[in-house]
């Protein structure tokens, strides 16, 4: 499992890098975020919750049946909208209160 960052969407705010507990996210020469040491990502989703541009996707590993299934977050006022895309491309959205998001 790991994340992927869409450099087209990234605005270089550094919020993802600042919250990553493993210090796995860096910025390139164009001020775009990227993950170093992908294998060390343990999927805490902290970076997804911080990205206002929905530039980060979290992928389940093929070892646990991921096969392209992924997750990304959209921020909406006091909500976080968790978009879950399964192996067949079907999308499910779960909404959580931002203030309570660390419960999940
Ligand atoms: S939080 Fe999102 S927009 Fe900000 S640096 Fe990270 S990927 Fe880019
Ligand atoms: S999911 Fe967690 S461990 Fe992985 S890059 Fe994001 S903040 Fe770091």
From TrEMBL:
Keyword Cell inner membrane: no
Keywords: 4Fe-4S, Electron transport, Iron, Iron-sulfur, Metal-binding, Repeat, Transport
First and last residue of the signal peptide: none
Keyword Metal-binding listed: yes
Pfam families: Fer4_7
4Fe-4S ferredoxin-type domain ranges (all copies): 1-30, 31-61
Listed GO MF terms: 4 iron, 4 sulfur cluster binding; metal ion binding
Transmembrane segments: none
Protein name: Dissimilatory adenylylsulfate reductase beta subunit
Organism field: Asaccharospora irregularis DSM 2635
């Amino acid at each position: 499992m790991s994340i992927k960052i869409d450099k087209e969407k990234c605005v270089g705010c550094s919020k993802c890098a600042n919250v990553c507990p493993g210090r796995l996210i860096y910025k390139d020469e164009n001020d775009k975020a990227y993950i170093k040491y992908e294998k060390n990502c343990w999927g805490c989703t902290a970076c997804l919750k911080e990205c206002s541009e929905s530039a980060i996707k979290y992928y389940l590993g093929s070892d646990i049946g991921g096969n392209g299934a992924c997750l990304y977050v959209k921020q909406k006022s006091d909500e976080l909208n968790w978009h879950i895309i399964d192996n067949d491309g079907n999308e499910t959205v779960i909404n959580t209160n931002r203030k309570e998001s660390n419960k999940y």
